[in-house]
Amino acid sequence: MSEQERSYTNVKWRVYRRVRSDTIAKIGAVVVIISLLLAVFSIVDDFLLNGLIIETLLHDPYQLNPDNRLAPPSLSHPFGTDEQGRDILARVIYGTRTSIVVGVGSVLFAAIVGVSLGIITAYYGGLVDDVGMRAMDVLLAFPAILLAIALLASLGRGFTSIILALGIAYIPSFARVTRSKALSVKSDEYVTAAEVIGYPTRDVLIDEILPNCFTPIIVQATFTLAVAIIAEAGLSFLGLGIEPPTPTWGIMLAGAQQYITSAWWYSLFPGLAIMLTVLGYNLLGDSIRDALDPQTGDGERRL
Amino acid sequence: MIRLVRYLFGRLLWAVPVLLGASVVTFMIMQLTPGDPARFILGQRASEGAVMELRRELGLHQPIYAQYVEFVVDAAQGDFGQSLQTREDVMGMLLQRLPYTAQLSLAGLLIAVVVSFPVGVIGAVQEGKFADHVSRVGALLGISTPNFWLGLLLILVFAVPSEGFPIFGMTLVTEDPIDGITSTLLPAIALGTAQAALLTRLLRGGMLDELQEGYVRTARAYGIDERETTYVYALKNAVLPTITVIGLQLGALLGGAVIVEQVFGIPGIGRMAIQAIFNKDFPVIQGITMLVAVAFVAVNLLVDVLCAQLDPRIILGGEK
Q: How close A55 comes to chain B (CA, Å)?
């Protein structure tokens, strides 16, 4: 027990040390933290305070203002306004929560199902393994976006649907990563010891095998989050994701498409928000992987 | 040779359950949808009798397993039924749209390969130097940029001021080579950039691993030309896993094409899929998802065989 606890703390320590010492990792971590803070802020401000803070500091992100439509960036509207005269900066800030909630939600769903599947198939092997992995092959035969689109066709639009659709599409990657790690972990001595002592199988899986598979799962989760944010924006852009008037970066870009020649700011800023956020998660993912993967050693190499 | 045939046979056997599973998923999409498709097509005002008649016509009156068996048997023969919207044959619609998606995806892949190979290899050879930093930052930006936004930016920068690049629609190369290329260039860049970035990262990592291998040290010790060592021995080994990933990335490429087609107004299967979803045109959605699954399985089978042919270390079928 103390063995694995020590290795787990060691993992956390290695990641922490790396993020502290590496400028690139620091940038990634800062972007990720800002995105999380903005998401929390917009949820609190919108649902608890009715937009009080954002209205005081900027503008109401929902307020239509037909007299001021497609206004270029100015002091009052740093990112300009959209076709309905709404402040783009305020909407970009509020849009963070859609990306983060959908990203975190779908990754959590995929991780919970995928990790359970990976550990169970690796531990039992045989027929369980064959059936489980064949099922993953089936899901992998569809491109994630297309699978999500097809699922959204039957689930309809909205937060829950898109989280489920993307979550299902990302299950196989978690299952595979976990399974291959669990396969090596299951023959370790402490697992055998737990089995010999007579631990119930459930405890062996959860207390012994799972904590030792955390490393690749965390790396996978960070990268999948980056992918999920792009996917959500893409689905919303296509009109299949979140429903307006909820501000999301994808819907904003869909609106901007029509005014591409007349209002460059409308298509520029929401896209920049996506790119910066995703870049942050990718940078952090790279650093975590390098910190945890003994093969890359100095960690500079694979970035 | 016998080994190759046996391997191919084994892989085809593997493909059967995967495709059957894919057909179940595809079939379920329609079943999971709340409401009656017949009622949806005819609208709320249609009489109960008309709805019943359409249900019979669509085979919806049969029990689910019978519907599924019929779906699979028909699908295996390339018959996905008729579009609920236009009454056209789904397979015919797919074949008509497929060339556009194929042209876009292949052009995107071509750009990805042409960019990633030199950039990834130079990055590895110049490790830690300026060129390496540029390639790393570029690759990170590439995987972080959504393809549809890149498409919008390309339209903003290139297509609007210069009339040279059409921003809407696409001409097939087989119809008009010049127009075909100019109309494909911008969408292909939008689609291929993320793939290029991904392949660059892979190739760089693969090259760095290979350059540390024993055989490279041996070759250097023997005094074999450094260039030959790098670009012939190491590159050859670094490329193999990349080819496998290219096969696996076909899915991402096709998925990306769905969105890029929408940005540039390209009449491919992606645009068709989006329209079908808004119209709840299930035979079309089913046809597209099955077609893509079949294409994906086929390409990856091909890639496996190709890799095995290129790398003598891989024993087909694996001696367990």
A: 28
Give the 3-state secondary structure of residue A12.
Answer: helix
What are φ and ψ of residue A87, in 5° steps? -75, 120
Q: Look at B205 and A302 and tell me if their CB atoms are within 8 Å.
A: yes
Q: What is the pTM of this model?
A: 0.88
Q: How far apart are CA B263 and CA B257, in angstroms?
A: 10
pLDDT by 10s per residue, chain A, length 303: 455 555 556 667 777 777 777 777 888 899 999 999 999 998 888 888 877 777 777 778 887 777 877 778 887 888 888 888 788 898 999 899 999 999 999 999 999 999 999 999 998 988 998 888 888 988 888 888 888 888 888 888 888 999 999 999 999 999 999 998 888 888 888 888 888 888 888 888 888 888 888 888 988 999 999 999 999 999 999 988 888 888 899 999 998 888 888 888 889 999 999 999 999 999 988 888 877 765 544 434 343
DSSP state for residue A87 in the 8-state scheme: B
A3-292: what fold?
MetI-like fold (1.10.3720)
CA distance to partner chain B, nearest, from residue A111 (Å) = 20
**d(CA A7, nearest CA chain B) in Å:** 27
Give chain A's end-to-end CA distance (angstroms, integer). 34
| Structure tokens that stand for B8 in this block | 């191919």
Asked if A137 reaches chain B (Cβ–Cβ under 8 Å), the answer is yes
- Nearest CA-CA distance, residue B232 and chain A, Å: 22
Longest CA–CA separation in chain A, Å? 76
Phi-psi region of A255 (alpha: psi -120 to 50; beta: other; left: phi over 0): alpha
- Please state the domain extents for chain A: 3-292
Q: Which of B11, B101, B144, B195 to mutate to test the interface with A (most CBs of A within 10 A)?
A: B144
Q: A residues 95-134 near B, CB within 8 Å? A: 134
Domains delineated in chain B: 2-76 (no CATH), 93-282 (1.10.3720.10)
CB contacts under 8 A, A 194-233 vs B, are 226, 230, 233
A99 and A277 Cβ atoms separated by less than 8 Å: yes
**Chain B 178-217, CB below 8 Å of chain A: which residues?**
201, 204-205, 208
